[in-house]
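I am writing to request your help with a piece of structural work I have in hand. Thank you for your consideration; the sequence and its tokens are set out here:
=====
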Amino acid sequence: MLLALLLTLLPLALLSSAAGAQDHATLRPLVDALGKGSFSDTEKQVAALAATGDPAVVPALEALTNGDLYVRKADKAVVIGKRAGGSLALTDPLTGEALGSTASSALDKIRVNNRLRRTIRAALGGLTLRAADANTRRQAAEAIFKAQDAEGIEALDAAIAAETDPGVAKLMREARAAAVLASDLSTEDKIAAIDTLAERGDRDALSMITAVQNSDAAELQEAAGAALARIQKLQAAWDTARNVWFGLSLGSVLLLAAIGLAITFGVMGVINMAHGEMVMLGAYTTFVVQNLFRAHAPDLFDYSLLVALPAAFLVAGLVGVGIERGIIRFLHNRPLETLLATWGVSLILQQAVRSIFGPTNQEVGNPAFMSGAFEIGQLTITYNRLWILVFALTVFAALLIAMKFTRFGLNVRAVTQNRRMAASMGIRTPLVDAPTFGLGSGIAGIAGVALSQIDNVSPNLGQSYIIDSFMVVVFGGVGNLWGTLVAAMSLGVANKFLEPFAGAVLAKILVLVFIILFIQKRPRGLFALKGRAVEA
């Protein structure tokens, strides 16, 4: 049976090899003719090669436009030559077979000029537009669109007629419209091209139509003006969507940084100036965990964040418990001393990290599932920002469930509303304070894991978020998780809408002024806690 199978496949292999050799035999004279005659003769040969529609000629045309195509003096054969030391390494332009090395004196370089380069680009575009791979065709259409190559119109017409992928066909039509605007075709053709680009509606289309708005033809001016109005209206809508997305992305970061602070501030009334350093410790824990994975299990690097999350929670949580047991429990009802003490702790932690890891930024990598981006219309969404938003909402939901449906959460809410009454009802408030402070610090630690994916990991990482975190907590209502969520998202969106007009620094100042005025009107924030002790 095996012998019969071999005898069956052998003729097929021989036929395939013979067909390939016959194709190359047909193409070989056309390739060798590139080295004969003037620039105009070479241009005709490029057109002849493009007319074959065979992708095997692409390496020869690419080498020609790059200045790597030569004629071998001995047999007048055309070869690809790459510089290798003092000689040239030769390659067959059709098969890619290595042909050894030779001195440059044994070869004549085939010269090209700018006109010939444009012809070659159009030929390459036509060949890649008919490639079997859809991504190759897409890239070719995008290249013609950006180049606005009028010489590629004919190739695009043929490719559009044969295209079966609707998305690629749409991109080819847009590339043809861009090429038409750069050509000398009729006004009617250009008006049709303007309509096609107006449907695309992005900034590239806007710039192309703006370039033809000053045309002498009144009809073309009118069509361009109407198209520009449509595109500008569409761009305004996409800009709004973009600002909302960026605002929600910033809001998710603020939520992660502030949610732990909302717990400790609400339960204990402690202004913890070292909260930002808990975030920083979480980021450095991620750095350490990733280095361990790189050294001992590089194939499992994509899982490093799954280990870094609990590790960061434990590290930051234990440091938080140590701060509460060692310092804060001795300073109850003394807010100024607590503020100064935690500020001193923040300086100590920053200097400790500088001494261990150095003052420079540390490299933290993104796992594969957090790398890259995708597009919704004209809105580009990066996976790392999307995952951080999902992660922030997940942490918020888990914390909300813990506060509502566990005995620990009941004790925390009782102490938050009325500390003295909770103590009178048998709740040991000192035993609530330590785990609560540890929980808030641990959540700040896992916030550091998330921030390490989008920000520089340095000893000053936490300082960038501590003021914003306090603004979120105060604006949303001290100790109220829903208020923290609404405040974080609101401030994030407000910042992103103000930045284009006022700049990043002035936008933050305006937000701060707004919060000050708002607190004057509602001292307990958006969602004030209810209760006689709170309202007293």
Observations:
- Residues 1-22, 532-536 have pLDDT under 50 and may be disordered.
- The first strand starts at residue 69 and ends at 72.
